[in-house]
Write a structure and sequence with these properties.
The complex is a heterodimer. By secondary structure, chain A is α/β, with parallel strands linked by helices. Chain A has 13 helices and 14 strands. Chain A has a seven-stranded mixed beta sheet with strand order 7-6-8-9-10-13-14, with helices on both faces. In chain A, helix 2 (about 45-60) crosses helix 12 (about 310-325) and helix 12 (about 310-325) crosses helix 13. Chain A is globular. Helices cover about 70% and strands about 0% of the residues of chain B. In chain B, helix 5 (about 140-160) packs antiparallel against helix 8 (about 185-205). Classes of the chains: A alpha/beta, B mainly alpha.
Chain lengths: ~375, ~290
């Protein structure tokens, strides 16, 4: 008799413990669409972004899922950073997989191509890692951006270059796409307003370019005090290394790509001392930042290597919270209303959305010292 | 002045690579009037062969150059067997289409196997620059230039003085007469495709450590090689050598002194001018000279 009671108690106890998991397994997962350049230009950034996103999925599912215990699942498509591929991938997620919430894409030019598609289909479009300012101006009411913009980055750094670092002359060298051109434009505007520094050179390269010797030699002749470099990996490291080979030295400024770990690894001492305007730093101390950092370390056994994993985490979390708060993963309108009033302590800082769907984003300046990012101020 | 010299030297380094790829293209065109679109693909295959040989078989970079040339040469011969020989006697456009189809197929195969992410072929030399008369160079660039120059010299000697070279020139002059004289035309086909592929592969391996390698790296190179062949005269090896260097220097100077953003346009402008005013090429057409 006693044995039987112990046995029954054990059965009840185990049922109680596994309960949520069993219920969750019975229900269909909540699927969220993801378009990222898994291969090609931006693949390294996407790898980092996916680490953050997968971490968010794991945390959500460990905490019992959303919509009353349903698991979260990301359906990932590759767009190779090519607008036409991105449109095809987005259409597949909308029409074949029948998803109502899409996180697309990375390269701004690809995201800009996706916006009309999501707008026409009337699905919720979360932009979690494209910086072109025009994206939130395209009039898609169901679009929310959980990451920074070129304007935010320019505002965060341009005045510092001019007034704190007292740079007198600068050269711009950038990737020729919506992200690069946008950031150059926004930064230049602020320089013009402040009256310094003088822009001595403005050059753009294509993502297929591998030989930067001619523009680097030209910049060397113009002798700018600083270089504002906007390039993704591996081009940023190639440019920095070719600069060293050609003997061109300047103070380096740039967005997160410049100070990301992949670039620092590949460029070594050639990126030492570079300043980056970023939206995430491993030294942030807020509870939300600490939660993200600890979970990241526990899952991957390393520290976040750039901003991009934080964007992946933030983007998926916002999508899941929107669905959970709306109480449905099928009605984009309800999800939109839920996101409109969302207030969340994201790892990088408090996040809420304005009327155009742009999230509030904090900006930090870091410097590479001895191959490590150091948070300034 | 130093900057002028620097731009000039930058142009020469990239220019000799254009020459090397263009010579492979012009040899095949000079002999058979065939435009081989896979020339840029060979450039990519050579670079990847060296990458895998050094990474997974632990071979030295220097040893990987001849091996990559042999492997790519064999692939070149297979290309000849599969999509050129079977079509012999057809119009030139047929070969253009068949090799273009093969190019698309091989490149997409490479994309599927290896992904579009750029990889780095490690250089055996130190990355520290060497400064000569104020011009910054790396040892890899010096090695590239010397190695390419030696290869071009050897190819020219081979075509001029060797028995096979004479047979190639005979076939280039008149295929039917050469065949009647007992020259093995099939053999000439095989040698010229193998040679063209190997030269392109060498260019890929030499340039690999300076720029990264990826499956679509051959596109730009193919376009540049076309410009060089048209500039130098179709089938003219000496023309390809000089015009490769001229194109490299023109691009470098154009980017340095006119506008950086239009670097690739300068080559195309030169090509259009040559086609308008000297369509036979700067050094005259054909006959494997």
């Amino acid at each position: 008799m006693k044995k039987r009671i112990v046995f029954l108690a054990a059965v009840f106890l185990s049922l109680f413990l596994c309960g949520p998991a069993i219920w969750a397994a019975d229900k269909p997962p909540v699927k969220i669409g993801v378009v990222q350049p898994i291969t090609g230009q931006g693949a390294n950034v996407a790898k980092s972004w996916l680490e953050g996103m997968n971490l968010a999925v794991e945390i959500l599912n460990k905490e019992g899922g959303i919509l009353g215990g349903r698991k979260v699942e990301a359906v990932v498509e590759d767009d190779q950073c090519i607008p036409a591929q991105s449109v095809a991938a987005t259409k597949k997620l909308i029409h074949q997989d029948n998803l109502k919430v899409i996180l697309a894409a990375m390269c701004s030019s690809a995201t800009i191509a996706d916006v009309p598609i999501t707008k026409e289909a009337g699905v919720v479009h979360i932009v979690s890692i494209s910086y072109a300012d025009s994206i939130t101006e395209m009039g898609n009411p169901l679009l929310f951006r959980t990451c920074t913009t070129n304007k935010i980055l320019a505002d965060g750094m341009a005045s510092k270059i001019s007034q704190d670092f007292k740079i007198k002359s600068i050269a711009f060298y950038s990737i020729n796409d919506d992200y690069g051109r946008g950031l150059v434009e926004q930064t230049k505007k602020i320089f013009e307003k402040l009256g310094s520094p003088k822009v001595l050179f403005e050059g753009f390269f294509e993502f297929k370019d591998r030989d930067f010797s001619a523009p680097i030699t030209k910049m060397k002749g113009l002798k700018p005090e600083a270089l504002y470099l906007i390039a993704r990996f591996p081009q940023n490291a190639q440019i920095l290394n070719q600069m060293a080979e050609l003997g061109f030295k300047a103070k380096l400024f740039g967005p997160a790509n410049l100070v990301a770990d992949d670039c620092v690894q590949a460029a070594g001492k050639n990126v030492e001392g570079a300043y980056g305007v970023v939206n995430w730093a491993n030294e942030l101390k807020t509870p939300a930042a600490k939660k993200f950092l600890d979970a990241f370390k526990a899952k991957y056994g390393k520290l976040p290597e750039d901003d991009f994993c934080c964007w992946g985490y933030t983007g998926l979390m916002v999508a899941a919270m929107g669905i959970d708060k709306a109480g449905t993963d099928q009605d984009p309108k309800k999800i939109e209303e839920a996101l409109r009033t969302l207030k969340w302590d994201a790892p990088a800082g408090p996040l809420s959305f304005d009327a155009k769907g742009q999230g509030t984003i904090s900006v930090y300046i870091v410097q590479i010292r001895n191959g490590k990012q150091v948070l300034l101020k | 002045m130093e900057l002028f010299l620097q731009q000039f030297v930058n142009g020469l380094v990239i220019g000799i690579i254009y020459s090397l790829v263009a010579i492979g293209l012009t040899v095949i065109y000079g002999i058979f009037d065939i435009i081989n679109m896979t020339q840029g693909t060979f450039f990519m295959i050579g670079a990847f062969a060296a990458y895998f040989l050094t990474k997974y078989f632990g071979l030295s970079y220097f040893l990987s150059i001849p091996l990559a040339m042999i492997i790519t040469g064999i692939i070149g011969i297979l290309v000849e067997r599969s999509s050129v020989r079977t079509l012999r006697g057809q119009h030139a456009i047929v070969f253009l289409l068949s090799t273009m189809g093969l190019m698309v197929m091989l490149e997409n195969l490479a994309l599927a196997l290896w992904g579009a992410t750029a990889r780095q072929l490690p250089s055996p030399f130190s990355p520290e620059p060497v400064v000569i008369l104020g011009v910054f160079l790396t040892r890899q660039k010096i090695f590239l230039f010397l190695c390419a120059a030696v290869m071009i010299f050897l190819v020219k000697r081979f075509i001029k003085a060797s028995r096979i070279g004479r047979a190639m020139r005979a076939v280039a002059t008149d295929q039917n007469t050469a065949a009647l004289m007992g020259i093995d035309v099939n053999g000439v086909f095989i040698v010229s495709f193998g040679l063209g592929a190997a030269l392109s592969a060498a260019a890929g391996v030499l340039l690999g450590p300076i720029f990264d390698i990826e499956p679509l790296m051959g596109h730009l190179t193919l376009i540049k090689a076309f410009i060089v062949v048209i500039m130098g005269g179709m089938g003219n090896i000496t023309g390809a050598l000089y015009c490769g260097l001229i194109l490299g220097v023109a691009e470098s100077m154009g980017a340095g002194y006119i506008d950086v953003d239009y670097k690739d346009a300068f080559g195309l402008i030169i090509m259009i001018l040559v086609l308008l005013f000297r369509p036979q090429g700067l050094l005259g057409k054909g006959g494997l000279r």
